[in-house]
# Entry
Amino acid sequence: MRLARWSADGTVEEGVIRDDAAVPFGAGRTVADALAAGLDRLDEVAGWADTAAARPLAEVELVVPVDAPTVRDFVAFEEHVEGVTAAVDGASHVAPEWYELPTFYFTNPHTLRADGAVVRPPVSARLDFELEVAAVIGGVDGSDGSDLDVETARRHIVGYTIMNDWSARDVQGREMKVRLGPCKGKDFATSLGPWIVTADELAPYEDADGFLALEVEAWVRGERIGHDLLSNMGWPFAELAAYASRDSRIVPGDVLGSGTAGNGGCLAELWGRTGGLAPEPLRPGDTVVLRVEGIGELRGTVGTPQAPVALPAARTRPRVRSR
# Structure
């Protein structure tokens, strides 16, 4: 099943994509309702579709498929870490801590962008994309999403979508020298879409350890520059979800990004391997196309940056301790 949201005649409708038709849910039901129902109730969710109200997919505009409360983005591909550290530090290395447990950061749920959107980046000389797949969390009867074991975490994953974690590498590099972030180097836009493919549809690609052997590709300016298998992640999604819930909670609608695929899943990895800015950074007008087997295609176009409002540098304070 493909869960989706779309704009038609000025209003947003929510439902499923069947063949080449957008079929809304009846009775005002939403994708959020479908996620809350969870993986075990997909047959019930399928019955919500109002086939009489279907319209051709070509006549609607897809919007972001989930109104996510939070977006966590992991860094689960060893090959990506090897390449990006070479680009940033001049030498390829993977910290021993990377192997111990999965690591993620929170990005901005308020700047999610849909398939086909034009993304307005910050002023950057090293604009980049990131080829990712994201798990979308749903409900499980009897679970509040806290401190999950791996099997319960797996049941919380309703489906998967494609994710592009747009990145301004020069901005990101500056702020991470403060040992915090990434912040403004990434929170300007994250593309998700085109829809959510439910986990049962991708079960044939799953191996005995829970990894999804989906082929993923990145195309920039009409050239394929990245190609990998999603199963090259260091941890399967169920383990990422379990870790995200540790001493915390995941709830329906939460998005968990895989992190960037290897073998050209972003430009920075390739810069690290070539020792220069080849392929060249993204520029206004460039279109990035991400393709994932079993899910579809996510497109995004780089828009024109806007000069930021100037802020002063930090003022060194006298550190007096009382008025």
Notes: Residues 78-89 form the longest helix (12 residues). The first strand starts at residue 2 and ends at 8. The mean pLDDT is 96.
